Amino acid sequence: MTKKEYMKLAVELASAAGGQTSPNPQVGCVIVKDGRVAGVGTHLKAGDKHAERHALEMAGTEASGADMYVTLEPCSHHGRTPPCADAVIAAGISRVFTASSDPDPRVSGRGIKKLLDAGIHVETGIMKEEADELNRRFFHYVTTRKPYVTLKIAASIDGKTATSSGESKWITGPGSRLDGHRLRHEHDAILVGIETVLADDPELTVRLPEGGIDPVRIVLDNELRFPLQAKMLQVPGKTIIFTSERGGKDKERLLKEAGAEVIRLSSFRIEPEAVLEKLGAVSIGSLLIEGGGTVLDSFVRAGLFQEAVLYQAPIIIGGRNAVPAVGGSGMERLSECPRLVLKHVEQLEQDLKLTYRNEVQKECSPEL
């Protein structure tokens, strides 16, 4: 096998964690001795052994003089677990091949330097693009201290999420809805506005055949209209309600007694930037925004999102009174519109799943 093939195996091992390592990155490791895989490892969750340590334990004495392929630069700091770079050195690994450098300020080149200082040959950048993609949410969080934001939209071909009468169940098919639950499973938190709570009374839980981890539930509610008997207060997990100075103090007390956490912002309007700062401060590294239209509009206008996932159903609803996916008054000029980059297309039964990234473009529209 080639170096790239060994690293591909390490990337596949890293992806097996399914985004559940937050606030840590997803990491896979392969140890090779005399052309044979001697050990493999995956970091499964925060607090668990890192991928390198799992692989070293499997390899045992064969680690001495072996090559290590790891998707991320080995850590060099003391966290919940000891530094992996020290374990690599102690095991007698001869060469280390990495895909990504770690942008975490606690590591950021220090792990590689420690290996080099110990006389270990280090080669970086093998399958870097694939490994960086796997940890895009983690990289964003550790460099900005704010969550990576994904907008989720389920709509018709003409961008509607409900008919003029308000009927919306179901626009997309079972495959899209199941995949939407996988998105929830992959994110630390899920956010909706109070109008969605009042209209749908959602649980915002993960419902997958294989199970899953429920994200923290976030609700934006300027005036604290959140119902005390809402379903999301009846199910396990944390619910955080953001409110403004307009939210009643008595209602805040009642919501806290019902099990909700209430964060009051010192303004008369909830601003997306303030929400992201607060969430980042409590180690929420990824945020899935499911709506409604007004909430999506506020984050789009502020440019505070990194990804958008559109589940597009093969139906046309039509009509100016039908509910659009993104509400508000809309942009006045095309130059104000975020021009997204299409990264992935997947067919889910009769629907399309379109994944976009909010990457800066030089021009919003071509000259005619």
Automatic annotation (TrEMBL):
CDD domains: Riboflavin_deaminase-reductase. Coiled coil: none annotated. The active site is at E52 (proton donor). It comes from the Bacteria. Residues 1-123 form the CMP/dCMP-type deaminase domain. InterPro entries: APOBEC/CMP_deaminase_Zn-bd, CMP_dCMP_dom, Cytidine_deaminase-like, DHFR-like_dom_sf, Eubact_RibD, RibD_C, RibDG_C, Riboflavin_Biosynth_HTPR. Zn(2+) binds at H50, C75, C84. PANTHER family: 2,5-DIAMINO-6-RIBOSYLAMINO-4(3H)-PYRIMIDINONE 5'-PHOSPHATE REDUCTASE, DIHYDROFOLATE REDUCTASE FAMILY PROTEIN (AFU_ORTHOLOGUE AFUA_8G06820). This is Riboflavin biosynthesis protein RibD. It comes from Alkalicoccus luteus. The gene is ribD.
